[in-house]
């Protein structure tokens, strides 16, 4: 090995060190600890012994897996709705808007994310609550006579989730659509294609990697969200993350909580793998 | 050169001017338990810098368990949540009662807390304040709400709010004519009773507007009239009564639930000196009264009567007659395993549709 390559590899490790440190100390080691914790349970004597009881509990007890299925299903709905709203927006920003305005639009999209999620959720709550802004105007305009409670239902919760994850769909879509050659779209129209067939045959296939990466991010963010379901969903919206929190905090059962955490990780990875298979994509292509 | 030395000397002097300048005191407590005025006064008196972290019973235990009792110099759990947690996780250190000015405390309350927080030969806490959970009712909009059963009554549909936490389960059990505390000793019986309570609460789900988690948010929705019957702490009701005479705290017919919050020192507290100093400071009659006047919680300190606002004393006599006081159900120490039973049921209630 020459001195130069030696130096280079040293430099390589030097730059890699923070990443390895980050992954090792903050992700891998805690996860090993959690894994060990999840595989231990109290026996009848109150001692901690190795056991898979925590994992069995998830499948045996309907509240747990039903909550998980519900959470996953609502996350999928959120992802689909986010995609349907974001797609035209991204297309407009990437292809239709003038260069000058494009930056301004992106900033407008980013702006709400300069305040924390908590503040944004509370903003929605002020708007939608029974004595809130929206009800006030509806009453003033005489459209309704008694205020309506718009919070604490599933539709509101999904709207909140869509709102808080929209950016993560729009940005990858914009970047992927910018690389779409305009002449392809023009050619499609010249050959007699309509809006729908052009979108379906030209734009969507081109945007596929962006769609997939956006969907993965939005899905994971929704699945792992705690704040929005809890505050906007109210009394009927047990989210799986809340169940993990409850195990750790309310029941003092860290072992059970750790098992749930791992199940969330495994099952969500499984869902994403399944999604990639169905759309015939590979993770490598999506990330690149 | 001389000037530099003089300057250095002055700097050293100014740092040592107050006894404990620069030392921090980490307090883990509930919202409202450390009023800013008292923190400022304490800092001025002793020189400590006070850092406050707000929490609740469950989170306090989880936080201390995660660090095995490090990170905080003083915690304020409820007296019933100390002994079993201490047995299992050893997150507190024995209270050194010789460092406490015991003359500051109501003797019966100090003794009760000592007894209830005893593990082997040590006790782990001293009382700070006490209060009850019961009903906050908007009597103009929800007349006739006098017991916990109002929380599941069709009459108040959509106007009811409570916490999805263990006090609600216990309150409903009392409202059903049972005594859950008597069943603390036999987990299977307790589970049976709690199952029944959970069924009631699931059936009554269309009636509740939301499960509140934040006290300020609850008071806000009572102010606006969105909620007219709620299960909450007495001081919240009294705070609202000061603004709107229609709203008040009502001790329920089947008994208000009495709690005592304490001071307990985490096992790996760095600054126990400051912890004892804070306890002895905040329990001084004038300081304890200041806290009660502001937050409306009743204090465990003696000799506060002459410092109290008249309205605060009135609150108590208005909500509690002689026999409702006798009817207060005081929380006995929570045995192990009970929390797991309740945790699962609370999940079940929340998940039900």
UniProtKB/TrEMBL annotation, chain B:
It comes from the Bacteria. GO terms for molecular function: polyamine binding. It is found in: Periplasm. One of its GO terms (cellular component) is periplasmic space. Residues 1-21 form the signal peptide. The keyword Methyltransferase does not apply. One of its GO terms (biological process) is polyamine transport. SUPFAM superfamilies: Periplasmic binding protein-like II (SSF53850). The keyword Ion transport does not apply. Keywords: Periplasm, Signal, Transport. This is Spermidine/putrescine ABC transporter substrate-binding protein. It comes from Halodesulfovibrio spirochaetisodalis.
